[in-house]
Amino acid sequence: MNDDILDDTIDIITDHALARPGEVMPATIHLLPVTTRPFFPGQAVPLLMDADHWAATIKAAEREDHGILGIIMVDANTSESATPKHFRRIGTACRVHRVQKVEGRLQVLVECLQRFEVERFISGSAPFSAQVRYFSEPLESPASDIKAYAMAVINTIKELVPLNPLYGEELRIFLDRMGPDDPSHLADFAASLTTADKYQLQEVLEAVDLMPRMEKVLELLNNELELARAQHEIRQSVEERMETQQREFFLREQLKSIQQELGIEKDDRTAELEKFQERLAKLKLTEQATRRVDEEMEKLALLETGSPEYALTRNYIDWITLLPWGRHSRDNLDIEVARRALDRDHYGLEDVKKRILEFLAVGIKKGEVNGSIILLVGPPGVGKTSIGKSIAEALGRRFYRFSVGGMRDEAEIKGHRRTYIGAMPGKFVQAMKEAGTENPVIMLDEIDKIGASYHGDPASALLEALDPEQNSDFMDHYLDLRFDLSKVLFVCTANQLDTIPGPLLDRMELISLSGYIAQEKLQIARRFLLPRQLKRAGLKRGEIKIDTPTLRAIAEGYARDAGVRRMEKQIGEIVRKAVVKILDGEPTPIVVGRDQLQAYLGSPIFRDERKLTGPGVVTGLAWTAMGGATLSVEAVRTHGFTRGFKLTGQLGDVMRESAEIAYGHIVGNAERYGADSGFFEKGFIHLHVPAGATPKDGPSAGITMASALLSLATARPIRNIAMTGELTLTGQVFPVGGIREKVIAARRAGIRELILPEENRGEYEEVPEHVRKGFKVHFASTFDDVVPLLFAKRRRRATT
């Protein structure tokens, strides 16, 4: 609405003769549909409409002498889409006062005069026209009940005025022209003040009789009063809260100024700078770090505390001052203390303890233990992580552990650059901050499971940190400073070596943890696992009794893996079920015997490995990530129609090649080994390795498969002997890995005679004495050394 229309509106409102008494209203008028809300007699309303669509209607109304236009609400989505069926029955007759076209739209000022009812449409499309009849306003004095309603309406409006000042001006204008003696216009005026929806207002417009109209209007006004009160309360609450916050802010600022004047307190920036200065006084920063910190402190002193750059600079200085520059813990240089710490926390693993003590002894002799990188390799549950903790305890150093398994982002190792939002230092800097010294023991768990992605290669990022020649100047991307990691003792753990990159593996000192035999598991369960589970359950030692045969049965039937993690889980399950019995009132001690294990743990998970016998059947030895295992190999001649060789048992490529080498060697030397040379000429040989669902690979079953083929060709069964070794085409026996695990597997299977490669003799002699006890071992350099050991000697028939 422009200023001219606004002035005209005020003039019309202040005119006391909006609807002139006795004026003859036309019986036929043009209609203008509206969709927003209806209009009431006594109002001056500015309208805004589309010029192209409604210009014809406005012009038609202006051409008439009376200039009357009927405004009526329609139930259509838009006024342009309205048809006669959308028109409401009652509308308001208005006189057009001013029309102005602005930017393709019509601004029309109308004066609302009187209610009318559509009797019939003359034109059913725009411009609409219809024959109408009017409802005259009552001229006599209102009855007492009507006058009472009018006073109630006025009083309600007066209550609205303090809550919303906008009502005050409109009420003043209305009361200047009318009062309680004009209840009809009062009701219409009151309805127009409310924010009721268009359908409620249309009901008021259609209420021709005064009493129902007054009732509806008073209801709408009361609803408006409740809404205004709620809005006022909300506004008042918000204003009070803002005033309180502003008052507290000003008081706080005044208090801060007073404290600063008295020297009691400093501002945030000064307090931060002094805190950093106090930290720096206790550190021995390098020259580069000192220069960088001075620059950042100068910058921090100039920045506003609310700026983003202030927070970034403050965090950067905070990280630098929290690192242990020049701060070391004093090493415990006592070999006996180290030996006791290792023996207290670990049973067995004598070769591992020996290697660790040798490493520590060199440092003790020198007077300090230099930084180094130890790699502990072994199956899950053999105690790699706990050994790392014991090393830290033996030396009296801080211990920090983090896992690199699944890590795919180089920034996890070397940090993010400060240009990124949310940048942080890498894991090594975080570890140094947590440890608080420059010479902690840092454990990198699961280093064989580190990943790589488009974010970078974390394994390559580790090369700098784990290289004794480089890590004295380790560069973190976030700090962008050289930090000395050369005094850190790194202990890494892995389950296998295959997935560790060669350059990284080359930087580490390898210590293998092969696993535990049943006797070692038994002692570990008695000394460590059972007491720990009883403590976790809140039980005393005597409340549950598990004897030695029962623990041995658990180890052999339920926890045959190389480590003791599964063993502890099974003991924990027994303890939990025993606690339930105790709470149910069963007297203590709860005795768990071998014959009760199935009730506590269910059927055994592991059963005795089946010993297959007969010609063509040989027992081999294999290494798995869970430790050692025996492996039966079967060979049969399925038919003699054609020559062929078939392999089954889910064998890998290397194992298939090993089988083909064994087949070729036996076929080529059959007569020399005492077999029929024609056996393989037309024989179809099928070689199978049982447990077909388990993938198998590697060259160590070479002599085993060759022995099975020789046994099949000679129709002689193999003795109770197990073997392992790689076979070449020329019959040479090459060394293999995992000797300790394979010996343990043979002991578990009850086999006491082994054939091993000659070049593995040294590894066998390193196997602990208690593991080797009772074995008869043959070492072979060629397959010719193996053949005489395979078969039982035939008894010669006595002659007379």
Word description of this protein:
By secondary structure, this protein is an alpha/beta fold. The chain folds into 6 domains: 28-134, Archaeosine Trna-guanine Transglycosylase, Chain: A, domain 4; 144-229, no CATH class; 268-322, no CATH class; 335-512, 3-Layer(aba) Sandwich (Rossmann fold); 518-601, Helicase, Ruva Protein, domain 3; 617-789, Ribosomal Protein S5, domain 2. It has a 7-stranded mixed β-sheet with strand order 18-19-17-16-20-23-24. It has a 5-stranded mixed beta barrel with strand order 1-3-4-5-6. Strands 8-9-12-7-13 form a 5-stranded parallel β-sheet, with helices on both faces. The protein starts with a helix and ends in a 14-residue tail after the last helix. Mean pLDDT is 82; it is low at 12-19 and 795-800. It is found in: Cytoplasm. Belongs to the peptidase S16 family. It catalyses: Hydrolysis of proteins in presence of ATP.
Instruction: Give a count of the beta strands, DSSP E runs of length 2 or more.
Output: 24
Strand order in space, largest sheet: 18-19-17-16-20-23-24
Largest sheet: 7 strands, mixed
| SS summary, helix count | 27
> Mind telling me the CATH superfamily name of the largest domain?
P-loop containing nucleotide triphosphate hydrolases
CATH class of the largest domain: Alpha Beta
Fold-level CATH name of the largest domain? Rossmann fold
Radius of gyration: 49 Å
Distance between the termini: 141 Å
Which structural class matches the secondary elements? alpha/beta
Strand content: 15-25%
What is the helical fraction, as a range of percent?
40-55%
Poorly predicted segments: 12-19, 795-800
Global mean pLDDT: 82
* Number of domain units: 6
Judging by the overall fold, what is the CATH architecture of the largest domain?
A: 3-Layer(aba) Sandwich
| Silhouette | elongated
GO molecular function: ATP binding; ATP hydrolysis activity; ATP-dependent peptidase activity; sequence-specific DNA binding; serine-type endopeptidase activity
Subcellular location: Cytoplasm
Keywords: ATP-binding, Coiled coil, Cytoplasm, Hydrolase, Nucleotide-binding, Protease, Serine protease, Stress response
Coiled coil: 211-286
